[in-house]
Amino acid sequence: MFTDMDSKATSAMARVSTSRPFGSRDPLANTGGRLSSNNLYRLRSCRLDGQHNRALGNAGEELAARWLTDHGFRVVARNLRTIYGELDVVAEKNGHVHVVEVKTRRGTGYGSPLEAIDHRKQEHLRRSTMAALAAGIPGLTRSIRGIHIDAMSILMSDGTAPVIEFVEDILA
């Protein structure tokens, strides 16, 4: 009698320990481990979208750095990491430090790229900028006369030239 109960308890514990947590991000979590063609498509599209978004973002940051250089800025750092996150582009012009948040999109189906810079993102930029300045930004050689947090919107449609919009001092 006890052996039967012990084996049932052991198999129940094995089921519990191998089950996935509720709300798992695993695309196969609700399939019992089966890989159907639909699940395979979802798995591939998640990976490709992530790679596509990174490539689009990198291309946008490259365009932003070139645009800033062409307009008299000196790019000091790109993708500068702080304890609060990452700053896309840090540039300098006439002793003023410009931290530029770059938003790149293929279209306006989800709104303007600048609309993605909400109050929460602005707070992140402010904190990251202060942390970077406190830690010291390599490449800044002159004394700082001012700090500006700016944004750049880049729309890259197929077959047309990119549309670039630069907005200075975006903090509300």
UniProtKB/TrEMBL annotation:
Coiled-coil annotation reads: none
Single Gene Ontology MF annotation = nucleic acid binding
Against Pfam families, the record matches this protein to: UPF0102
Stretches for region Disordered: 1-34
Which Gene3D superfamilies does the UniProt record give? Answer: 3.40.1350.10
Q: Which residues form the signal peptide?
A: none
| Family classification | Belongs to the UPF0102 family.
Q: Which HAMAP family match?
A: UPF0102 (MF_00048)
| UniProt-recorded name of the protein | UPF0102 protein SMC2_02435
Protein source organism? Candidatus Cryosericum hinesii
Lineage of the species this protein comes from: Bacteria, Pseudomonadati, Caldisericota/Cryosericota group, Candidatus Cryosericota, Candidatus Cryosericia
